[in-house]
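ESCALATION

Customer reports they have been waiting on this structure for their group meeting. Please prioritize. Original submission:
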Amino acid sequence: MTDLTAIELDVLRGSANGETYAETARRIFITEKSVSNVARRVMRKLDARTMPHAVHLAWQAGILRRERHGDHAGFTAHVRRGEDPWACTQGCPEGERSYRAGRRQQRKEAA
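Update from on-call: job pushed to the front of the queue and completed.
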């Protein structure tokens, strides 16, 4: 499969998260028409008939991964990708702090 650009991945992730084209456009600061054009490009590159089909094919190909934000799993996903997890604006640092506090509490209770 063809590599997708950053904006194509943003549009694909938006569709995977159930966003409308208008919501995706607001989130990534482009027009709704541009999102539609990018979506068509994504479908063409993935040989998909619809955006839901493109999302399905992307999951199968490993282009999209299940990553949560605002928790320990999202934090470690950033680390694996070589990103700075403390710079995440979607709650990963707070999730990591909460996770670590819970683990400390579990250790105290077990001792």
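Sent to customer with the following note: The chain has two domains: 6-61, 72-110.
Escalation resolved.
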